[in-house]
TrEMBL record:
PROSITE patterns: ABC_TRANSPORTER_1 (PS00211), ABC_TRANSPORTER_2 (PS50893). SMART domains: AAA. This is NitT/TauT family transport system ATP-binding protein. SUPFAM superfamilies: P-loop containing nucleoside triphosphate hydrolases (SSF52540). Residues 5-234 form the ABC transporter domain. Keywords: ATP-binding, Nucleotide-binding, Transport. It comes from the Bacteria. GO terms for molecular function: ATP binding; ATP hydrolysis activity. The keyword Transport applies. It holds the Pfam family ABC_tran. Belongs to the ABC transporter superfamily. InterPro entries: AAA+_ATPase, ABC_transporter-like_ATP-bd, ABC_transporter-like_CS, ABC_transporter_ATP-bind, P-loop_NTPase.
Protein backbone atom coordinates (compact mmCIF):
# COMPACT_ATOMS: atom_id res chain seq x y z
CA UNK A 1 0.00 0.00 0.00
CA UNK A 2 1.10 3.59 -0.59
CA UNK A 3 3.01 5.30 2.21
CA UNK A 4 1.00 7.88 4.18
CA UNK A 5 4.17 9.70 5.16
CA UNK A 6 7.15 9.58 2.85
CA UNK A 7 10.48 11.35 3.15
CA UNK A 8 13.05 11.30 0.38
CA UNK A 9 16.48 12.77 1.10
CA UNK A 10 14.99 15.33 3.46
CA UNK A 11 17.56 17.76 4.87
CA UNK A 12 16.99 20.79 7.04
CA UNK A 13 19.67 23.26 8.06
CA UNK A 14 18.95 26.05 10.53
CA UNK A 15 21.02 29.18 10.04
CA UNK A 16 21.98 30.41 13.49
CA UNK A 17 24.25 33.14 14.87
CA UNK A 18 26.79 30.39 15.63
CA UNK A 19 26.67 29.04 12.08
CA UNK A 20 24.55 26.39 10.35
CA UNK A 21 22.93 23.59 12.37
CA UNK A 22 22.28 20.47 10.33
CA UNK A 23 19.12 19.32 12.09
CA UNK A 24 18.28 16.72 9.40
CA UNK A 25 20.50 15.21 6.73
CA UNK A 26 19.24 12.96 3.91
CA UNK A 27 16.36 11.41 5.80
CA UNK A 28 14.60 8.64 3.84
CA UNK A 29 11.54 7.02 5.38
CA UNK A 30 8.23 5.51 4.32
CA UNK A 31 5.41 5.02 6.82
CA UNK A 32 2.56 2.73 5.78
CA UNK A 33 -1.08 3.24 6.82
CA UNK A 34 -1.79 2.07 10.35
CA UNK A 35 1.83 1.88 11.47
CA UNK A 36 2.90 3.10 14.91
CA UNK A 37 6.33 4.62 14.35
CA UNK A 38 8.55 5.87 17.15
CA UNK A 39 11.50 8.21 16.67
CA UNK A 40 14.20 7.73 19.25
CA UNK A 41 17.61 9.29 19.69
CA UNK A 42 19.59 11.66 21.89
CA UNK A 43 18.81 15.34 22.30
CA UNK A 44 19.39 17.33 19.13
CA UNK A 45 19.20 14.42 16.64
CA UNK A 46 16.31 16.06 14.81
CA UNK A 47 13.33 13.99 16.04
CA UNK A 48 11.19 17.03 16.73
CA UNK A 49 12.37 18.78 13.59
CA UNK A 50 11.32 15.80 11.49
CA UNK A 51 7.87 15.59 13.08
CA UNK A 52 7.42 19.36 12.77
CA UNK A 53 8.43 19.15 9.10
CA UNK A 54 5.76 16.49 8.51
CA UNK A 55 3.28 18.86 10.19
CA UNK A 56 4.42 21.81 8.01
CA UNK A 57 5.68 23.63 11.11
CA UNK A 58 9.20 23.60 9.62
CA UNK A 59 10.25 23.64 5.96
CA UNK A 60 13.04 21.31 4.81
CA UNK A 61 15.96 22.92 3.04
CA UNK A 62 15.96 20.14 0.45
CA UNK A 63 14.39 16.79 -0.34
CA UNK A 64 10.79 15.68 -0.71
CA UNK A 65 8.22 15.11 2.00
CA UNK A 66 4.68 13.95 1.37
CA UNK A 67 1.75 13.37 3.70
CA UNK A 68 -1.27 11.52 2.31
CA UNK A 69 0.21 12.14 -1.13
CA UNK A 70 0.29 15.91 -0.57
CA UNK A 71 2.93 18.50 0.26
CA UNK A 72 2.96 19.02 4.06
CA UNK A 73 1.38 22.44 3.74
CA UNK A 74 -1.51 21.11 1.65
CA UNK A 75 -1.88 18.22 4.12
CA UNK A 76 -2.10 20.75 6.97
CA UNK A 77 -4.84 22.65 5.15
CA UNK A 78 -6.63 19.34 4.47
CA UNK A 79 -6.36 18.57 8.21
CA UNK A 80 -4.62 15.31 7.46
CA UNK A 81 -3.25 14.93 11.01
CA UNK A 82 -3.65 15.86 14.64
CA UNK A 83 -0.59 17.06 16.58
CA UNK A 84 0.07 16.46 20.29
CA UNK A 85 2.76 18.62 21.89
CA UNK A 86 4.95 17.82 24.88
CA UNK A 87 2.89 20.07 27.17
CA UNK A 88 -0.91 19.74 27.20
CA UNK A 89 -1.37 23.47 26.44
CA UNK A 90 -4.97 23.64 27.64
CA UNK A 91 -6.60 27.02 28.24
CA UNK A 92 -7.25 27.29 32.00
CA UNK A 93 -10.39 29.39 31.53
CA UNK A 94 -12.06 26.77 29.35
CA UNK A 95 -13.49 23.46 30.50
CA UNK A 96 -12.09 20.22 29.10
CA UNK A 97 -14.89 19.99 26.54
CA UNK A 98 -14.43 23.72 25.80
CA UNK A 99 -10.74 23.14 25.11
CA UNK A 100 -11.43 20.20 22.82
CA UNK A 101 -14.13 22.01 20.90
CA UNK A 102 -12.13 25.24 20.41
CA UNK A 103 -10.35 24.17 17.18
CA UNK A 104 -13.67 22.82 15.92
CA UNK A 105 -15.31 26.19 16.65
CA UNK A 106 -12.55 27.96 14.71
CA UNK A 107 -13.08 25.55 11.83
CA UNK A 108 -16.79 26.35 11.78
CA UNK A 109 -18.32 23.06 12.91
CA UNK A 110 -21.93 23.35 14.08
CA UNK A 111 -22.75 23.16 17.78
CA UNK A 112 -24.30 19.68 17.43
CA UNK A 113 -21.37 18.35 15.40
CA UNK A 114 -18.94 19.74 18.01
CA UNK A 115 -20.88 18.13 20.85
CA UNK A 116 -20.94 14.80 19.04
CA UNK A 117 -17.18 14.88 18.31
CA UNK A 118 -16.21 16.02 21.81
CA UNK A 119 -18.27 13.21 23.36
CA UNK A 120 -16.69 10.64 21.04
CA UNK A 121 -13.06 11.65 21.69
CA UNK A 122 -13.60 12.02 25.44
CA UNK A 123 -14.86 8.45 25.40
CA UNK A 124 -11.78 7.33 23.41
CA UNK A 125 -9.42 8.76 26.05
CA UNK A 126 -11.70 7.69 28.93
CA UNK A 127 -12.44 11.19 30.21
CA UNK A 128 -16.20 11.19 29.70
CA UNK A 129 -17.00 12.21 33.26
CA UNK A 130 -14.62 15.18 33.14
CA UNK A 131 -16.07 17.20 30.26
CA UNK A 132 -17.18 20.05 32.52
CA UNK A 133 -14.02 20.23 34.66
CA UNK A 134 -11.30 22.83 34.21
CA UNK A 135 -7.74 21.72 33.35
CA UNK A 136 -6.43 22.56 36.84
CA UNK A 137 -8.93 20.12 38.30
CA UNK A 138 -7.27 17.25 36.41
CA UNK A 139 -3.98 15.41 37.01
CA UNK A 140 -1.08 15.87 34.56
CA UNK A 141 -1.84 12.53 32.90
CA UNK A 142 -5.51 13.41 32.49
CA UNK A 143 -4.58 16.79 31.02
CA UNK A 144 -2.36 15.07 28.48
CA UNK A 145 -5.23 12.69 27.62
CA UNK A 146 -7.41 15.77 27.07
CA UNK A 147 -4.80 17.19 24.68
CA UNK A 148 -4.79 13.86 22.81
CA UNK A 149 -8.60 14.07 22.62
CA UNK A 150 -8.27 17.59 21.18
CA UNK A 151 -5.91 16.27 18.48
CA UNK A 152 -8.31 13.39 17.75
CA UNK A 153 -11.33 15.67 17.37
CA UNK A 154 -10.40 16.44 13.74
CA UNK A 155 -10.79 12.73 13.05
CA UNK A 156 -7.62 12.70 10.93
CA UNK A 157 -6.04 9.38 9.99
CA UNK A 158 -2.62 10.51 11.21
CA UNK A 159 -1.63 11.42 14.75
CA UNK A 160 1.75 13.11 15.35
CA UNK A 161 2.94 13.11 18.95
CA UNK A 162 6.06 14.95 20.15
CA UNK A 163 7.13 13.37 23.45
CA UNK A 164 3.61 13.59 24.85
CA UNK A 165 4.39 11.68 28.06
CA UNK A 166 7.94 12.92 28.72
CA UNK A 167 6.98 15.04 31.72
CA UNK A 168 4.91 12.37 33.48
CA UNK A 169 5.94 9.90 36.17
CA UNK A 170 6.53 6.30 35.19
CA UNK A 171 3.31 4.79 36.52
CA UNK A 172 1.13 7.38 34.80
CA UNK A 173 3.20 6.95 31.67
CA UNK A 174 2.67 3.17 31.71
CA UNK A 175 -1.07 3.68 31.94
CA UNK A 176 -1.10 6.22 29.13
CA UNK A 177 1.04 3.94 26.97
CA UNK A 178 -1.52 1.17 27.44
CA UNK A 179 -4.38 3.55 26.69
CA UNK A 180 -2.66 4.91 23.58
CA UNK A 181 -2.01 1.42 22.27
CA UNK A 182 -5.67 0.48 22.83
CA UNK A 183 -6.74 3.66 21.04
CA UNK A 184 -4.41 2.91 18.12
CA UNK A 185 -5.79 -0.64 17.79
CA UNK A 186 -9.35 0.65 17.94
CA UNK A 187 -8.94 3.49 15.44
CA UNK A 188 -6.28 2.09 13.07
CA UNK A 189 -4.62 5.50 12.87
CA UNK A 190 -1.06 6.01 11.67
CA UNK A 191 0.98 7.37 14.57
CA UNK A 192 4.35 9.17 14.58
CA UNK A 193 5.69 9.35 18.12
CA UNK A 194 8.84 11.05 19.43
CA UNK A 195 10.37 9.63 22.62
CA UNK A 196 13.59 9.44 24.60
CA UNK A 197 12.57 6.18 26.23
CA UNK A 198 13.67 2.81 24.85
CA UNK A 199 10.97 0.81 26.74
CA UNK A 200 8.28 3.23 25.58
CA UNK A 201 9.41 2.99 21.94
CA UNK A 202 9.58 -0.81 22.09
CA UNK A 203 6.24 -1.17 23.89
CA UNK A 204 4.30 1.06 21.50
CA UNK A 205 5.77 0.71 18.05
CA UNK A 206 5.43 -1.41 14.97
CA UNK A 207 8.53 0.38 13.67
CA UNK A 208 11.34 2.09 15.59
CA UNK A 209 13.40 4.76 13.86
CA UNK A 210 16.77 5.29 15.55
CA UNK A 211 18.37 8.68 14.96
CA UNK A 212 21.75 10.22 15.61
CA UNK A 213 22.87 13.87 15.83
CA UNK A 214 25.35 16.16 14.04
CA UNK A 215 24.01 15.90 11.45
CA UNK A 216 20.56 14.59 12.42
CA UNK A 217 19.98 11.37 10.49
CA UNK A 218 18.36 7.95 10.63
CA UNK A 219 20.89 5.30 11.58
CA UNK A 220 18.56 2.31 11.89
CA UNK A 221 14.95 1.33 11.24
CA UNK A 222 13.74 -1.65 13.25
CA UNK A 223 10.46 -3.47 12.48
CA UNK A 224 8.93 -4.88 15.63
CA UNK A 225 8.08 -8.58 15.77
CA UNK A 226 5.79 -8.02 18.78
CA UNK A 227 2.04 -8.70 18.33
CA UNK A 228 -0.41 -5.75 18.33
CA UNK A 229 -1.97 -6.99 21.59
CA UNK A 230 0.57 -5.98 24.25
CA UNK A 231 -0.18 -6.28 27.93
CA UNK A 232 2.38 -4.37 30.04
CA UNK A 233 3.87 -7.72 31.14
CA UNK A 234 5.16 -8.19 27.58
CA UNK A 235 8.07 -6.04 28.76
CA UNK A 236 9.38 -9.04 30.72
CA UNK A 237 9.43 -11.37 27.72
CA UNK A 238 12.65 -12.37 25.94
CA UNK A 239 11.31 -10.90 22.64
CA UNK A 240 10.79 -7.50 24.24
CA UNK A 241 14.16 -7.51 25.97
CA UNK A 242 15.92 -8.54 22.75
CA UNK A 243 14.23 -5.72 20.85
CA UNK A 244 15.15 -3.16 23.52
CA UNK A 245 18.73 -4.43 23.28
CA UNK A 246 18.68 -3.98 19.50
CA UNK A 247 17.46 -0.37 19.89
CA UNK A 248 20.14 0.33 22.51
CA UNK A 249 22.81 -1.11 20.21
CA UNK A 250 21.47 1.05 17.38
CA UNK A 251 21.79 4.14 19.58
CA UNK A 252 25.30 3.15 20.58
CA UNK A 253 26.35 2.58 16.96
CA UNK A 254 25.17 6.12 16.21
CA UNK A 255 27.15 7.22 19.28
CA UNK A 256 23.80 8.23 20.64
CA UNK A 257 24.31 7.87 24.36
CA UNK A 258 28.09 7.50 24.61
N1 LIG B 1 14.32 26.97 15.28
C1 LIG B 1 15.58 26.56 15.39
N2 LIG B 1 16.62 27.37 15.14
C2 LIG B 1 17.89 26.92 15.22
N3 LIG B 1 18.23 25.67 15.58
C3 LIG B 1 17.25 24.82 15.85
C4 LIG B 1 15.87 25.21 15.79
N4 LIG B 1 15.11 24.12 16.11
C5 LIG B 1 15.96 23.12 16.38
N5 LIG B 1 17.23 23.52 16.21
C6 LIG B 1 18.45 22.70 16.37
O1 LIG B 1 18.32 21.59 15.50
C7 LIG B 1 18.83 20.40 16.11
C8 LIG B 1 17.74 19.36 16.16
O2 LIG B 1 16.75 19.78 17.09
P1 LIG B 1 15.47 18.91 17.48
O3 LIG B 1 14.68 19.70 18.47
O4 LIG B 1 14.80 18.46 16.26
O5 LIG B 1 16.12 17.64 18.18
P2 LIG B 1 15.45 16.53 19.07
O6 LIG B 1 16.07 15.26 18.64
O7 LIG B 1 13.98 16.63 18.98
O8 LIG B 1 15.95 16.93 20.50
P3 LIG B 1 15.20 16.83 21.92
O9 LIG B 1 15.13 15.39 22.22
O10 LIG B 1 16.09 17.59 22.85
O11 LIG B 1 13.84 17.46 21.76
C9 LIG B 1 19.34 20.82 17.47
O12 LIG B 1 20.73 21.05 17.37
C10 LIG B 1 18.60 22.10 17.75
O13 LIG B 1 19.35 22.96 18.58
Amino acid sequence: MDAVIEAQRVSLTFQTADGPVHALKDVDLAIAPGEFVSFIGPSGCGKTTFLRSVAALETPTSGRLSVNGMEPDAARRARAYGFVFQAPGLYPWRTISGNISLPLEIMGFSRSERAERVARVLDLVELTGFAGKFPWQLSGGMQQRASIARALAFDADILLMDEPFGALDEIVRDRLNEALLALWRKTGKTIGFVTHSIPEAVYLSTKIVVMSPRPGRITKVIDSPLPPERPLEIRDTPEFIALAHEVREGLREGHGYD
